[in-house]
Sequence to fold (716 residues):
Amino acid sequence: MGKVATAEAMRFMVDCLKAVGTAARAAEQQAELLIQADRFGHPSHGLNRLEMYVNDIISGACKPNNEPKVLKESPSTAWIDANNVLGATASHYAMDVAINKAKQTGVAWVTVKGSNHNGMAGFWAQKAADKGLIGMAFTNTSPLLAPTRSKQSALGTNPISVVAPASQGESFYLDMATTAVAVGKIEMQRRKGEPLPAGWAQGPDGRETQDADLAFETGCLMPLGGGERTSGYKGFGLAAMVELFCGISAGANYGHHVRSWSHSGDGGPANLGHCFVAVDPECFAPGFGDRLAESIQHWRQLEPTDPDLPVLAPGDKEKKAAAEADVKGTVSYVKQQIESSAALAERLKVKPMEVEME
Amino acid sequence: MGKVATAEAMRFMVDCLKAVGTAARAAEQQAELLIQADRFGHPSHGLNRLEMYVNDIISGACKPNNEPKVLKESPSTAWIDANNVLGATASHYAMDVAINKAKQTGVAWVTVKGSNHNGMAGFWAQKAADKGLIGMAFTNTSPLLAPTRSKQSALGTNPISVVAPASQGESFYLDMATTAVAVGKIEMQRRKGEPLPAGWAQGPDGRETQDADLAFETGCLMPLGGGERTSGYKGFGLAAMVELFCGISAGANYGHHVRSWSHSGDGGPANLGHCFVAVDPECFAPGFGDRLAESIQHWRQLEPTDPDLPVLAPGDKEKKAAAEADVKGTVSYVKQQIESSAALAERLKVKPMEVEME
Fold:
């Protein structure tokens, strides 16, 4: 592992994005999104993604200095063309529209087409929660999920995120892929040389596999719930629901029409679809924050099956990781990540990231 | 099994509800909700539930002839007090408010307190879809779900439903409990004397159990995803999200404060919370229905792992069951159900249901 000062990791990401022509503000917003994932202990959505964004900018597939625009709106909805900007630029723009409308009418529903990968969905839901609203974010992604009974993938890992502010400094934070696990977990088992648990992924014959290499090459993740007997069709249904909210509503690429996840800057824009929702809890019963805080605290205090493993409320793991990273002022990366970042620095003629190897 | 003409099952349910003082329209609406579940092949939410409603009316826990009212509203939201009416009355009222507001502003978000069990969530999402909208329905229910790592239950089976109209006579129909399975599936294994698959339910020690009797007595279902290793915390997170939308937002009973599912008409109102959402797809990209139909048809045509088990789109199973029931003009009930309905008829001095035993 290599340890990097959080500010230095940010500096490096901003420099790389600027080196390929991204204006300062767009580069900073994208870097803030990525560093948040690294702080939250979700490295698959952090620095790890930087090179993909850089490649898409170099190839012209992403146009970071374009401007998103509203194509159609009503008092509580907006349809936005991201105009192929970076995912962070598009998502800040769209969630700002949602927040403003929700403050007026109580709820806003915004869909976006023509966008790019917008990182950790929770970052966007949190943006609305920071304004006192219930925030929700959904996005489609490249096909990786095999619907129940199918040999082939047809949907992405299509995340659902809901974040809401509670009293006493608490908050509800849910950010989940609708596959059983994200592809990063398969990669981790592969690196460790360990087999996969049941219900994670399929081999090319459409049957569950415990072989991490085969699963990685096949690229057919099982939906949340695993096989049919354990209700995997519900995870498939949720992934399909996210696609309905995103690509299908926004008129972006959708489902099997989204480009492959192994794409590496070979042209064509991603044209991803997102959906952002903001709801003002003040429109309903007074005391929302108190009831939410009481629930969160109740869950944590439930008697655990294993006394060494206390019950966690949604988001507890992420908040703990972020707090630890912030105390240290550093984020940590695997050796492979440190090496590929050094190579990227050289390729882009950017000052390499200062790393303390552990 | 016993076969009953669909109209006769309806007649019986309406008569029972009227026998305990329910006005005709409320009785008919509740019976329509129940018969839909029987037609859809979800008998746990059909006639099976009738006696619970009847008992709650007799005990005074439910007041079927009250009227729901809007407590607070904005252009796109409403907070409703169901005033303790039957779930069907409350839900028709609330979804009508949502539909009208969504037609005006593009989206509506409505929460309800003071309600009773409102049956199959999909019935309510379908009501909005029938008006050309994307309909969503959520409700809290009695505690049965054990959060990941917990020995105790803390949330209900809290369903999520999303229904949307598509072109070519297609529609997207998702209606799912956020537990791995509904309690009815445990009952079915118990009746058959078969063990439970992994990931369904816990015993009193908090460990997974394959013992259907023990699982039924313990009443701790596992969330969608099963154990922690297979991401059961996502199912827990979804159940918690539903509670946030329902009881927590609406100021109804919530989570562990909701009365036990084994309650049998002993007084105190349920005070359940629901949430209804309607979104007008016309507010976004033209061609929504075409893209949705194309997706649904694509999923069905995916190459299946087992050639005898074609891939199903969300809702295909329910639509097939309903079509078959409608061709026959009958619904079927297990012997136990037939017997308890006969006893109920006698208790309420209502004409018994005409049954053809098979």
About this structure: The CA atoms of residues 86 and 169 of chain B lie 32 Å apart.
